[in-house]
Specification:
Blueprint lengths: L1 H41 L29 E4 L6 H9 L5 H7 L13 E4 L11 H4 L10 E3 L6 H9 L5 H7 L13 E3 L3
Antiparallel strand pairs: 1-2, 3-4
Helix pairs in contact: 2-3, 5-6
Length: 193
Amino acid sequence: MKTKIVEKVKTAESTISMFFGIAVVVIAGVLLFNYFKNYIKKQPVEETQSTESVFDQAPEEGKPAYNGELPTKYQVQINDSLWSISVKFYGYGYNWVDISKENNLNNSDQIEVGQELTIPNVEPRIPAKAETLQTKTANTIEGSSYVVQKGDSLWNISVRAYQDGYKWVEIAKANNLSNPDFIHAGNTLTIPR
């Protein structure tokens, strides 16, 4: 009698193990499917003929690439940020605040390719240069490169190089800085002229 009970328990045990094994395989398959489905959705959309426009060229600061009427609609492209969109429409990036406000964006750092934004009809925000920045100081940076000193920031370097702190963005772009808040003493930065 004991052997029959032991045989039934062993048979039930192998059946239960088989069902758990099947369940694990099915759950793993579903998780993999969902992961790859979401991964594919997040991949950048290939640029097509319709996205090529005046925006393919990087606009010069102060000269917007868009010369149409505002307000208008704009579809977010690959590598766009609110700053770069503002430069395209207003010539300066400082109007990113107006674009964010117009579109009720909770997080202005998160815009997605294909998202449609309304570009408001507002005056371009032109950076004001302080009179004191126009005067040359003993610490003016003249060359096309600069070795970072302890206590430097991109803003201070920009003021010394261009007499305009807002041009720190150009230094960050020229040096491919992934985080412009972190520059280290001893690093050599290219100063675009």
